[in-house]
Write a structure and sequence with these properties.
There is one protein chain. Strand 9 (287-292) and strand 10 form a beta hairpin. The chain is α/β, with parallel strands linked by helices. It is 41% helix and 18% strand. A 5-stranded mixed sheet has the order 1-3-2-4-5, sandwiched between helices. It has a 5-stranded mixed sheet with strand order 7-6-8-9-10, with helices on both faces. A 4-stranded mixed sheet has the order 12-11-13-14, sandwiched between helices. The radius of gyration is 23 Å and the shape is globular. The structure holds 1,6-di-O-phosphono-alpha-D-glucopyranose. Residues 28-29, 67-68, 281, 285-286, 356-358, 375, 377, 379, 503-506, 510 line the site of 1,6-di-O-phosphono-alpha-D-glucopyranose (G16). 1,6-di-O-phosphono-alpha-D-glucopyranose (G16) binds next to loops. Catalyzes the conversion of GlcNAc-6-P into GlcNAc-1-P during the synthesis of uridine diphosphate/UDP-GlcNAc, which is a biosynthetic precursor of chitin and also supplies the amino sugars for N-linked oligosaccharides of glycoproteins. It catalyses: N-acetyl-alpha-D-glucosamine 1-phosphate = N-acetyl-D-glucosamine 6-phosphate. The active site is at 67 (phosphoserine intermediate).
């Protein structure tokens, strides 16, 4: 009989890690919940990821992290062969197995094998990474047991950022993309960064080579410590929130998510006027830039700002290189209304809006030769078509010096980008390069357009899936009474816009509101939160206006 399909081995794991009563769903970025509810999940995900690897005859990645969530949560994301997120049709397969009991898993697994015509004589191959959470290593070892139960092999990358894991998986399956190792990752990004930097190395008036860095007390802090040693002669990195030994400090009053949702400085970052401040999130796939002006006002440069900065820069370079290629930006409903207006009216670049989750943005961005995608929360990257990469090669050998120079810039830029997924380090190198090239500080960057004030809120409800949405999450379908009430409320606020959606990473409903002043945006968010609480089964304390 086929050694790989030894159901007794899989059954042993199902018995060892029994499923609690509650079913789980594959959320915005994989399974995510309280860390102590995840043993059975990671075992089963290990099994299904191994099947996925056998089906594709390629390596697959598993990342144990709950990213921006509280330290006591954890989660697991599955990475597909090209380093992107697991294909959506497989989310259902993995969810079925995660939620099945001892009596039905065999049938579920057989059905995956049959419907995907998986050759079970193939060896599954997995790469495994994890973040700094206290539960991560334990969960990673159970995931290994899952993979082993199908006789798959696991290469442990160990403690790493999410984007490093995505990158290594891609390189293993597509060696032309780079060397499949952590060193290979740093080498590719930092070498292209240094070369690009040298191209723009003129006297600076505005750009200051100094940043204050908030590592969210997570794995991003280790990354930046390393990077600081490599590029310290170009950018001085002042490390803060780099305590990975105290678990409950992770993301606590710090990190990219905190800064974006609270619109204020994280703990331990000095409020030095006009200094360039940067935060990563817990697994370093998101980034935020911000500063405090001389009047002590807080200014945020978020994912929308990065998308527009990059689009502006790349549009100019492709013109200089005389490349005829398509360029587009992908956003979500969280994109500030004025950023979308700036992209269409001033930059005259194509923009589309999709559901929250990098998996949706990435997919949409593939439609362009240069697809720039960013969630407002700082999660994003740029992807380049093969056609564009081929065209650049031709331009590199042009007789026209201006064209070859622009093509060189573009080619180095491509190598500095981690195209597999949002990557805070790669994004930082991109932003720093552009600011350095333009000799801008953050206030110059901010001048591109004015944002509408916004407010974000969370509401706890009995069942967050009672809220369903349509139109890229901009409109709510159920409970049916909710959207008309939101419309009515929004119409009484100048430049009002608001939407609600269930989070796919936390057990809450998210509320977003924009209006002409901060006070009005705050009030709109609060009024919408009350509507959600009243109409969608709120629990705990009712949000209140007073
Ligand atoms: C994940 C996803 C992001 C998403 C965020 C919040 O980020 O990768 O695409 O924007 O969750 O999702 P939700 O609003 O559904 O909770 P991370 O950094 O937590 O992995």
């Amino acid at each position: 009989s086929d050694q790989r399909l030894n159901f007794s081995k899989i059954l042993a794991g199902f018995k060892k890690y029994p499923k609690p009563n509650r079913d789980l769903e594959y959320g915005t970025a994989g399974f995510r919940t309280k860390a102590d509810l995840l043993d059975h999940v990671v075992f089963r995900v290990g099994v299904v990821a191994c099947l996925r690897s056998m089906q594709k005859k390629k390596a697959i990645g598993l990342m144990i992290t709950a990213s921006h969530n509280i330290h006591s949560d954890n989660g697991v994301k599955i990475v597909d062969p090209l380093g992107d997120m697991l294909e959506q049709s497989w989310e259902k397969f993995v969810t079925d197995v995660v939620n099945s009991g001892e009596d039905s898993f065999e049938e579920k697994i057989m059905s995956i094998i049959r419907s995907n015509e998986i050759d079970t004589s193939i060896d599954g191959c997995l790469f495994l990474g994890w973040d700094t959470r206290p539960s991560s290593e334990h969960l990673a070892s159970i995931a290994c047991e899952g993979v082993s139960s199908l006789n798959g092999t696991v290469t442990k990358i160990g403690l790493c950022t999410t984007p490093v894991l995505h990158y290594v998986v891609r390189c293993h399956n597509d060696p032309a993309y780079g060397k499949a190792s952590v060193d290979g990752y740093y080498d590719k990004l930092l070498t292209s960064f240094e070369k690009l930097w040298a191209k723009f190395d003129h006297i600076k008036k505005c750009y200051s080579p100094h940043i204050y860095f908030d590592g969210a007390n997570g794995v991003g802090a280790i990354t930046m410590e390393y990077v600081s040693g490599k590029i310290g002669d170009k950018i001085e990195i002042d490390l803060h929130n780099d305590d990975i030994k105290t678990p409950d400090k992770l993301n606590h009053c710090c990190g990219a998510d905190f800064v974006k949702t609270q619109q204020k400085l994280p703990l331990s970052i000095p409020a030095k006027p006009c200094a360039r401040l940067v935060s990563f999130d817990g697994d370093a796939d998101r980034i935020m830039y911000y500063f405090v002006d001389p009047e002590n006002q807080f200014h945020l440069l978020d994912g929308d700002r990065m998308a527009t900065l990059i689009a502006m820069f790349l549009r100019q370079i492709i013109q200089e290189a005389e490349l005829d290629v398509s360029l587009g930006i992908v956003q979500t409903a969280y994109a500030n209304g004025s950023s979308t207006k700036f992209i269409t009216e001033t930059l005259k670049v194509d923009v589309s809006c999709v559901k929250t989750g990098v998996k949706y943005l990435h997919h949409e961005a593939l439609k362009y030769d240069i697809g720039i995608y960013f969630e407002a929360n700082g999660h994003g990257t740029v992807i380049f078509s093969q056609r564009l990469k081929d065209e650049i090669k031709l331009k590199l050998v042009s007789d026209n010096e201006k064209i070859t120079s622009a093509a060189t810039t573009l080619s180095l830029f491509v190598d500095m980008v981690n195209e597999t997924v949002g990557d805070a380090l790669s994004d930082l190198l991109i932003v720093e390069t552009i600011l350095h090239a333009k000799d801008w500080d953050l206030s110059e960057w901010e001048k591109l357009y004015d944002v509408l004030p916004y407010q974000m809120a969370k509401v706890t409800v009995k069942n967050r899936n009672a809220i369903t949405t349509t139109d890229a999450e901009r409109r709510c379908v159920t409970p049916v009474e909710l959207q008309p009430k939101i419309d009515e409320m929004v119409s009484s606020f100048k430049f009002g816009r608001a939407f609600v959606r269930p989070s796919g990473t936390e057990d809450i409903v998210r509320v977003y509101a924009e209006a002409v002043t901060q006070a009005e945006a705050n009030e709109l968010a609060l009024r919408i939160s009350i509507l959600v609480y009243d109409l969608a089964g709120g629990i705990g304390e009712r949000p209140s206006l007073f």
